[in-house]
Description:
Layout: E1 10-14, H1 18-28, E2 33-37, H2 40-49, E3 52-57, H3 66-75, E4 84-88, H4 93-102, E5 106-109, H5 114-127
Parallel strand pairs: 1-2, 1-3, 3-4, 4-5
Amino acid sequence: MSATFTSLPTILAVDDSPVMLELIKRTLESDYRVLVADNAIDALSIIYHEPIKILLLDVTMPGIDGLELCRTVRTLPQFQELPILMLTAKDRVFDKVQGRLAGATEYLTKPFDESQLRAVLFKFLNYSTPEIKE
C-alpha cells in the first residue's frame, strides 16, 4: 500500500450491528481509514476528534437513532457540509424522505451493493476536497 494509513480519507460508520460494521470495514478498508461506532454518543465523540470525511449512518439504533444523530450533526456549524449517507434496511419512499429531511446527503439501502457504495463515496470525496490553494 503506497499511501500511509493516516493519509487515507477517514469514514465513520455508525451501526448497532457488529456484523454490519465488520462488513463495511472489510468492504472499504483497502481505500479508506474506517472508524466504527455502535451508538450516537460514541459517534459524536469520534466526529469531534477525528478528521471525518464521510459519515455512514444506520437509521434503526437503540437510544438515539440515525435520523436524530443526523439532525444533531447538521446543527453543528463545522459539520454543515459533511456528507452523511444513511445506510439502512428501511427502503420505503417515506423513509428516504425522512432521511433527506434529517439532513442526509444520500440514502442507500441494505444489503448494500459494494460497487454502489464505493461509487457514492468516491463521488462525495471528489466533491469535498478543500485542499485547492488559491
